[in-house]
Amino acid sequence: KAGVTQTPRYLIKTRGQQVTLSCSPISGHRSVSWYQQTPGQGLQFLFEYFSETQRNKGNFPGRFSGRQFSNSRSEMNVSTLELGDSALYLCASSATGTGSYGYTFGSGTRLTVV
Amino acid sequence: GQQLNQSPQSMFIQEGEDVSMNCTSSSIFNTWLWYKQDPGEGPVLLIALYKAGELTSNGRLTAQFGITRKDSFLNISASIPSDVGIYFCAGHTNAGKSTFGDGTTLTVKP
């Protein structure tokens, strides 16, 4: 079956702009989580959606938001981009919704803010 | 919040050598997971551990769930060049939250 698909793979934006990233989970997976990865910072949890509801949220400012659609596809939005938002954004899907059996990650979207 | 201390941060080893890395926390986890991330890709699940004291192998990889439930270890035997990458531990609670370590970057010299 197809894996987790993230689009676009690469993105360059200017400071102050906003951006939307997309994630299509594995078919049948209802949980989607988003992570920010920067060098030396590991994987920082942004938020998790299950059946269109946000269940958990990390410690990121309100400029970071997300949503999940009825087909489980998810989008993440970052408004008023800052240089420090440059990172690899990873989406992960899970069948159980708890992640205890592991996540399947997409290849990520590499966002560069200039 | 919960934090994981993963060490070492990086390792430079010779092909054929064994590798050990670990994660520790002040919090108890119900599940420990180990992932590997290749350059330009997302992390891929290697091993999942569900019981304190559990020892699980996946080929040349062996991982253990610490008896206190606050730590986990990953060993790689007879390393090969394709073992290069970033290894992450992740602790998971029954409340549905996962916490990732900062990763161990492994470099294998042929």
Q: What does this molecule look like?
A:
The complex is a heterodimer of chains A (114) and B (110). Chain A is 0% helix and 53% strand. Chain A is built from no helices and 11 strands. In chain A, strands 2, 4, 5, 6, 9, 10 and 11 form a 7-stranded mixed sheet that branches. Chain A has a 4-stranded antiparallel sheet with strand order 1-3-8-7, with no helix packed on it. Chain A is globular and about 40 Å long. In chain A, 39% of the residues are buried. By secondary structure, chain B is mainly β. In chain B, the strands form 2 sheets. In chain B, strands 2, 4, 5, 9, 10 and 11 form a 6-stranded mixed sheet that branches. The termini of chain B are far apart.
Distinctive features:
heterodimer; A: 114 residues; mainly beta; seven-stranded mixed sheet; four-stranded antiparallel sheet; 11 strands; globular; B: 110 residues; six-stranded mixed sheet; five-stranded antiparallel sheet
Beta-strand percentage of chain B?
over 45%
Largest interchain contact: A-B, 26 and 25 residues
Residue ranges of chain A: pLDDT <50 for 5 or more in a row?
Answer: none
Report the sheet with the most strands of chain B, covering strand number, pairing sense and barrel closure: 6 strands, mixed
> What helical percentage do the residues of chain B reach?
under 10%
* Overall spatial form of chain B: globular
Biggest β-sheet strands, sense, barrel of chain A: 7 strands, mixed
Average residue pLDDT of chain B: 93
